[in-house]
Write the structure tokens for this entry.
Amino acid sequence: MPQIRENKVKRKLERGEIAVVLAGPTTPDLLDMMGPLGFDGAWIEGEHGPIDFADIPDMTRACDLWEMTSVVRVNLNLPGVIYRTLDVGAMGIVVPHVNTADEARAVVEAAKFGPIGARGAFGSRQGYGIPDYMRQANDQTLVVVLIEDIVAVNNLTEILEVDNIDVFFVAPSDLAQSMGHVGDISHPEVVATIDRALAQITAAGRTAGALVSDASVESYIQRGARFLMIAWPAWVANGSSAFLEKVASVGG
């Protein structure tokens, strides 16, 4: 029986390992170029930015070439948005602003076929040549929900009881905004809230996700995060700044 592509990120998380996804590429060519760098997956940004449904197939194909898991953040917790994104090739889905257990259950309902959920009974680019795609998709599809509002943190106990969610990702920027600290993710109150949420997720035996940087990655791993997302533009900015400083120092 032909098998669907293995979801590298999902399998690593199931083994208790750390999975790292790279965010930032906005075209198939960029994803293809970054494929050899060795990341487990790519975060395809469909909530903020220019990416639309028509862009997802080729972007996920580029991920497939390098055995990276394609993880797409959608802009709405709506069934048609979620399962259409999976239909066109995403191997994982990230849903923003999941603030209640009912909203978490709605994500699962849209992302999984029966008997788990009620995803629209249709094929997918990932299912070409797979006669029992629907069964295999339930096993391979990665489901990530974003805990990014203070109301979600307050409801976290109930949200963590929802089955078939792979990652509970604590997102700092919107969380800070919802707490009245717009643009200040380093505010002590925000940091304490993130720490509390990560501890609660891991204590419940669930997988925590976090946005990391070179400076913060060790801290987040120590706090229990296993799904790590990092954006590459900061590396470009740091590298270009260092290069231009060298040019200026030598060239006067």
